Amino acid sequence: MHLLAYLTDMLLAGMFFLAAFSKLGSSFADFRLSITSYRVLPRSFLTPAAGIVLAAELGLVVLYGFGLLPIWRDLLAVLLFAGFTIMLFRKRRLQESEDTSCSCFGKIEVLNKYPVMRNVVLMLLAGGRLALPDRATADLDAAVLALTGLTVIISGTMLLELYSSLRRSKEIRIDL
Length: 176
Description:
The chain has helices spanning 2-23, 27-36, 46-66, 70-94, 109-112, 115-129, 140-175. It is mostly helical. Helix 1 (2-23) packs antiparallel against helix 6 and helix 4 (70-94) packs antiparallel against helix 6 (115-129).
């Protein structure tokens, strides 16, 4: 059961890291534009709202990665996914004929294709995590295991982004 708890934590940490990583840099402006399309905030709140979402995602990476604050992080994750899903339904209702896609994971199309289904699955995973035992966070072995998991997540994300960039540049070269 502890292995399942660890794997679930690493999967959720990976998803939150992927979401946060895709919003950093030049994509942060795209993320702010994406928030605009939901029509829930005035223009002056876009940057702070984007920063809060990014901070929450990075905070959840740390909490899941190191197994900290188990009940609180799971509740925060469920609330975040529920909030995102409600906003998606609102956006779809407001923009019936327009594109109502999600760019939560930047240019990673696979994760943006069915955002409601993805959010429901991740909500169930985070909610189901409450039923699993807490991970031991106090000993050195647990810390090394957590750092190893986070290193794999971060490295994998960067390699995925590099692969996506190379694939896009190859497509652009072919189109020219």
